[in-house]
Amino acid sequence: MESVADNTSVSLKFVVVGGGISGLATSYALARAGHKVILLEKSDGTESSAVGVRSPPSMTRVLHQWGLKHIFDEIAQLCRGISWYSGPNAEPLGSLVVDDFLKEVAANFYFIQHGTLQDLLERLAKQEGVDIRYNTRVLGADPDTGYVSLNDGGQIYGDVVIAADGYNSALRAIVVGEEDKPNPEKTLILSFALPTAVLEGDPELRSMLVPTLSSFWIGEGYFCVSHMLNKGRDYTGIISHKYSGPQEVNDWTLVHDINQFDIDFGKLDTRVKKLLAHATSVYSRIIHTKSSVDSLVCENSRIVLVGDAAHPIPHGANHCQALGFEDAQTLGCLFSRLQRRDQVSQLLTAYNEIRQPWSHFALAHTYRHHQMLKMPNGPGQQMRDARMRATMVHLDVEDDHMDEVMFKQVWGDDLRLFLYDAREKVEDWWGQWGASIVKGPNRTSVLPRVQISVSTKTE
């Protein structure tokens, strides 16, 4: 259902640090709710990535609620299923398809080019009056005063500062209270893109050219997911590989020689190696495992974490970009209800109580799920494959059906993530606790703390 945002009675000044997808989405949602928004981005705004972004149902739902269904249908590629391959010989496990059983939870799963999505959000933000300032590097922010410090010596004031500055956020430590503790576990992410015409000329790759079908390989220490984009004109993918080397690569905009990482690419399936070899661009980054935070809002209710700064989920997960859109929608819906300035801290408390437990769950699930996908070849891998095979349909078998009980055991947490509705969560919260917001300005919880315990160990 599409809706138009209610406008706030009081307009605040928000300063959003970071002009990536999460920063633009948050800026748009807050401006749409009636607030003044200044977005600060260190780049010149001309970067445009050709790689793909997955929009699972929870993210697509936000875009539809913003009234963008028609536009999104035009620029995004609908996904109706995923073909899975596993093990050293890339044996087919079957396909996950959006049939009668899955359509209520997994429909509206799309692929869209990163640059196309970013351009759309930039255009929408500007239409809502967001003041986007490129070539503006932020050094820090003062949680007491709300001033953001710039590298040219200048300062910008915000009633609320939104930290949307990504995985290596400069502002996250202010909210967390300390730098993230170093974690030796690292992941190499390789994103690649190539014209579809390249696959058409290779008989082994040609079979992958199904516009609504994605391919997913899982193997010892890695997984790879790939799919078509731009109505079939382009092909893109991402490889997530365990990494223990000395290299550190933090800038997505730079193209690196992948041989410098000393990875045994011989373990990759032949088709994946061919895709890498033919790719017109390969972007790399090394991600350190990070834990969830106790709070997404600083003690003074000045600085708020969104997107990768809030929940640093490794790229390659279904939900990396979705969580940023959920953050944006949550803040937009909450601050459309602002009636007095002394309610700011309570609305930020609501944001934290709605989003922090969910962030913890999503992060823990993703790390656990990726460990399962990358397990070493052997009995454990064979048992995993047998369980996954039972959850899929086999397109070459007549009247084949998945094991629905096993499906819920294997994919249940993903389905929970797909079903999340950020606007509904705010409405539920407001229906139960909204009356308490008008009673006082103190930043104290009006909602009992929700504790979600999720094991991060691989069974």
Automatic annotation (TrEMBL):
A GO MF label: monooxygenase activity
Give a yes or no for keyword Glycosyltransferase in this entry: no
Q: Name one Pfam family in it.
A: FAD_binding_3
Keywords noted in UniProt: FAD, Flavoprotein, Monooxygenase, Oxidoreductase
Q: Which InterPro entries match?
A: FAD-bd (IPR002938), FAD-dep_Monooxygenase_BioMet (IPR050493), FAD/NAD-bd_sf (IPR036188)
What protein family is recorded?
Belongs to the paxM FAD-dependent monooxygenase family.
Q: Record's PANTHER family?
A: MONOOXYGENASE (PTHR13789), PUTATIVE (AFU_ORTHOLOGUE AFUA_6G14510)-RELATED (PTHR13789:SF309)
Q: Tell me what this protein is called.
A: FAD-binding domain-containing protein
